[in-house]
Amino acid sequence: MEKDIERILIEESQIQKKVKELADRISKDYRNGNILLIGILKGSVIFMSDLSRNLDLNAEFEFMDVSSYGNNTYSSGNIRINYDVKYDVGNKDILIVEDIIDTGRTLNKIIEVLNSKNPNSLRIATLLDKPDRRKVNIDISYKGFEIPNEFVVGYGLDYAGKYRNLPYIAVLKEKIYQN
């Protein structure tokens, strides 16, 4: 995998420090109750796991599988909910856990779906934010890193199902995804 990496954008130690900072803020904000973490599969799994282990409060888990990329490096604009929450989220304090926010279209659809289920509150935590690509305004409560408009992999993010297990965030060589 290393040969496919152009450069490391965010080191593993930086990620772990930021995850701890976010978890501390979330723990403080939700100190009087429970929280329902809804991870967006598959990219958020590593971030959500590390984040939850650093929380100082009760956290329940649920997942959604939503796709708009397929094996492309850009969103098709066709947003499909492949797996919706099975848990009753009414009157729950929900924290959507996302790996990266790009155009915001997919997350906007997720927010729409979850708000229709009448949660008590709904906030967003993302490890990465790409504001230069934003098409939809998204209110991000907890943001890890703002990154430039480059195609990144690692720490849960993939290209065609690969590179998720890298412990850092890296820019993938263009020749890998241009083929």
Automatic annotation (TrEMBL):
Main enzyme class: transferase
Pfam families documented for this protein: Pribosyltran (PF00156)
Gene3D superfamilies: 3.40.50.2020
Pathway: Purine metabolism; IMP biosynthesis via salvage pathway; IMP from hypoxanthine: step 1/1
Subcellular location: Cytoplasm
Domain Phosphoribosyltransferase: 14-159
Signal peptide: none
Reaction(s) the record says it catalyses: GMP + diphosphate = guanine + 5-phospho-alpha-D-ribose 1-diphosphate; IMP + diphosphate = hypoxanthine + 5-phospho-alpha-D-ribose 1-diphosphate
Descriptive protein name: Hypoxanthine phosphoribosyltransferase
